[in-house]
Amino acid sequence: MLDALREKVCAANRQLARSGLAVLTWGNTSGIDRERGLVVIKPSGIPYEQLEPGHMVVVDLDGKVTGGELRPSTDTATHLVLYRAFEQIGGVTHTHSRCATMFAQARCEIPCLGTTHADHFYGPVPVTRPLAEAETADYEANTGRIIVERCANVDPLAMPAVLVAGHGPFTWGRDAAESVRNAVALEAVAEMALGTRQLDPRAPELEAYILEKHHRRKHGPAAYYGQA
Amino acid sequence: MLDALREKVCAANRQLARSGLAVLTWGNTSGIDRERGLVVIKPSGIPYEQLEPGHMVVVDLDGKVTGGELRPSTDTATHLVLYRAFEQIGGVTHTHSRCATMFAQARCEIPCLGTTHADHFYGPVPVTRPLAEAETADYEANTGRIIVERCANVDPLAMPAVLVAGHGPFTWGRDAAESVRNAVALEAVAEMALGTRQLDPRAPELEAYILEKHHRRKHGPAAYYGQA
Amino acid sequence: MLDALREKVCAANRQLARSGLAVLTWGNTSGIDRERGLVVIKPSGIPYEQLEPGHMVVVDLDGKVTGGELRPSTDTATHLVLYRAFEQIGGVTHTHSRCATMFAQARCEIPCLGTTHADHFYGPVPVTRPLAEAETADYEANTGRIIVERCANVDPLAMPAVLVAGHGPFTWGRDAAESVRNAVALEAVAEMALGTRQLDPRAPELEAYILEKHHRRKHGPAAYYGQA
Amino acid sequence: MLDALREKVCAANRQLARSGLAVLTWGNTSGIDRERGLVVIKPSGIPYEQLEPGHMVVVDLDGKVTGGELRPSTDTATHLVLYRAFEQIGGVTHTHSRCATMFAQARCEIPCLGTTHADHFYGPVPVTRPLAEAETADYEANTGRIIVERCANVDPLAMPAVLVAGHGPFTWGRDAAESVRNAVALEAVAEMALGTRQLDPRAPELEAYILEKHHRRKHGPAAYYGQA
Lengths: 228, 228, 228, 228
Prior knowledge:
The structure is a homotetramer of 228-residue chains.
Chain A: H1 2-18, E1 27-33, E2 38-41, E3 57-60, E4 65-67, H2 76-85, E5 91-95, H3 98-106, H4 115-120, H5 139-150, E6 161-164, E7 168-173, H6 176-199, H7 208-218
Antiparallel strand pairs in A: 1-2, 1-5, 2-3, 3-4, 5-7, 6-7
């Protein structure tokens, strides 16, 4: 069963690269087997086009490597904090995609300006506070902690993205593939928000009732997007 | 004969994806058989690279599915309103293409700043009003209705595009393929208008007589663009 | 011998499409056989991927079609005016490439802000005046005439580009392939100029002595760029 | 052994073209064999897709061609100055990549606004002064000299990039391939900085302790990025 997860996580990482979101080796996707409490993640610093399922690294929720011969992504500890805090999620993706990173660097939320955004993210995409100097000691885990701090009281599947201030986006979903699709959607809505505010710095946020409507078309019991 | 339409609509949807206008599954193209009153449209939420003619869904002008085994696009009701109102058109395309969506989100017309625009759109591309809260009840059909409201007294083949406020563009044409070409043209003129106004916020609209000249080069009895 | 020119012009048109400068069918390249006074040009409205040498149209310098079975590009009369006025040139390319068209629509010269520009264009790239209403009668030829008017007293091989106000760029060169390379260079320097002025609206023009140096590295008797 | 270097330098040049950083023939990569004091570099003006290892040119550190049948890149003298001044480096890349060139033309440093930047460049990427008129006499070598002047007292592997005012970027690294990866990283951080400052002209520089942390994750004895 872990073999199936390795294949899915490998495929999701390759999809991430094909989507143009990950320059060089900047980006990583993981998936979790909740029953066993094991996470499968991309190895650190390996080019995407060379990735095969056998390269994937298996770690437990405390970060102990239990399978694979390579070092896991340096961002593994961040992924693990998210899996421990957000029990509904099955996959996590981190990128430095261009426009989402611009918002992260400007330390601005991505405002919800249209239905493209509403279809994927239920309101403005939040930004964390910066890490304090003392928090660099346990850097990757603390990056996860400020995400969880920022997303307290938020349904992680209704807002499956966050921007880490001065760093870049993390997205998640029900599985690894969905976390990649959310990374793609995030980049698109960030680019559109940038251009919309260039056209009109006071462009209004989407009407709350349209946000509600689009969210419910795709999420929850009354969803009617896609196939049954 | 419906088989031929399925093939054309499938090919138009695949062309839409190849043109880079449709991220993930955000976009759909349909075509109509006016004699039978049947519309062929992309199924909802299926990746473009997997689309085959047999996946296309057939609906009548009241939205009743009469062929195909999948659910039609969630935007089907919008397409149907357009086919009922604009009798000259044979194809409709909806996308969330980047720059056209920026204008839709900023709720700005796309001004006619050059001959690229004039070749395809006879004047500024209009924007609808936002939907009222009560109109979310019959959301997709009402999206079509505010388009028709905005385009009243406009020749739909002279202005084959509209921006839905806070949402994105719809385009149409004599058939499905032409509606896709108009979506491509719309995205290009939107990107150019954004950059032109960045260079000079007071860049002038194209002279009316040049708009007229370019429109008549491609449209109407004296057209001389393309092959006979 | 005209067969060789047909092949070169066809290849140059396909290169134009591969370079990403020509959306849909917006762009055309031609080449001239000066000895015979015959111009080979792309047919009107044919998709680039279908172009074959046999589709190319042959016209004399007065615009009479002397070979080929298709209609020539609607812009043929503009090309012919340029060939008659600029005796040194052997190829002409017209596009609606994104950033060059933004400058044409803003009716701004492209300032020479760096050596990329200096390597190809000896100073700011000029913009024509708009056509007067009466000039729409013989529209394509008059487009050529306002280009020639604007480029009077300019060496066409030192400044192988112009922007037609409200329309887009024309480039030329010693042959069809070089006119395409100049179209590629023009688009790149337009994009860079747009971004440079976004970073600093008062970014300075390149020092005149650096412009001179780069121009002479690539052009004239002391050129030392490329192979002997 | 020089054959191996020819292959690596050829592959690095082809990688440069595939990365989309080099339009037409604008860009070149070299590598050095420190034991023999020989530099292998791209020939001048040859299209990337035609490059083969046998086309690479070998020059000594004084610029004398000692192998290969083609002329070396016109920028060879600049590369040689860098190899002589920066003893730790093994490869050099020059491009006119879009966003890095915008900063070079605006004569602005690229500020360090996020961890993407910090992972590759230890602080703001510097800009040279413009060349003086007298310095155009020995143009390419003097371009190298103003780079070295600007980078005095800087560890070239901690800051493996510079912008030449009014021209474009040079990057370097432990070998040719790393100099290309740094060119890719530089373009990405330049694009992100441009967009970040568009969102907020006062977006803050990255906290110094985060810069320090990210730098040490990838560089120096305590680095833990990538495989052992």
